[in-house]
Amino acid sequence: MRIKFLLIAFLTSVIGFSQSVNDYKAVIVPLKYDFLKSENQYRMSTMTKANLVKAGFQAFYGNEELPEGFGDRCEFLYVDVKKDNGFLITKLFVEFKDCYGKVVYTSEIGKSKEKDYEAAYRECLDMAFVSINALNYKYNGKTVNTSRAATTSIPATQIVAATAVSTPAADLKDPNLLFAQPTENGYQLIDKTPKVVMKLLKTSRPDSFIAIKDGVQGSLNAKDNQWFFEYYKNDQLVSEKVSVKF
Predict the structure, then answer these.
(1) Do the Cβ atoms of 238 and 159 come closer than 8 Å?
(2) What are 184-195's pLDDT values in tens digits?
(3) How many other C-beta atoms lie within 10 A of the C-beta of residue 114?
(4) How far is CA 132 from CA 5, 70, 114, 234, in A?
(5) Rounded to an integer, what distance in angstroms lies between the CA atom of residue 107 and that of residue 60?
(6) 114 in Cβ contact with 90 (< 8 Å)
(7) Residues 6 or more apart from 225 whose CB is under 8 A from it?
(8) Full-prediction pTM beyond 0.70?
């Protein structure tokens, strides 16, 4: 009886994950993962995108210009590859998060005993995507309920603040436009190179972030329908305009 109950629970969870993944139009692939030292090291971003496309997803790099019809960042899933600890064995798994950083789906762990990093990561990623391929992803055409997503991942006090503040719209023609990629505690802003220019940490307000740029810590604040990076230099407040696409 216990085995039957666990089997039903497992099948229900798999179906639930499959349905939630199908609510999203496409997937954003970051140029760098936390366990790597540089962008697309060992071709990890390239291999991730290739596996996503093979699994039926539309996938775009974080710095890629999106085609028309992809206006709301909450229509996307944000993929992340994580490394698990292992002795003499490499372990990787894949996470899909929504625009608020809430985990929507986590793959099975891929394992490899290969000593060459690129070969090991490729084998792990291929194994992890076996469970993702089994989801048989197909976009169902639904509109993601962003207010529901916010409610499940942000405290009520923050939701009240979010409804009262209008964050600045991005100028897509600005040559210095930065693109926001979700991280564990906020975002990283990348340019078209691509290069990480600034790291943001969430605060209790949607119009203000703790910001770190070139080793300088300050804040990124929304004022007069613009974003400004503000910090102190020689006891003087410096305010730099920043164009960001969230």
Answers:
(1) no
(2) 888 999 888 778
(3) 14
(4) 24, 23, 22, 52
(5) 20
(6) yes
(7) 166, 168, 169
(8) no
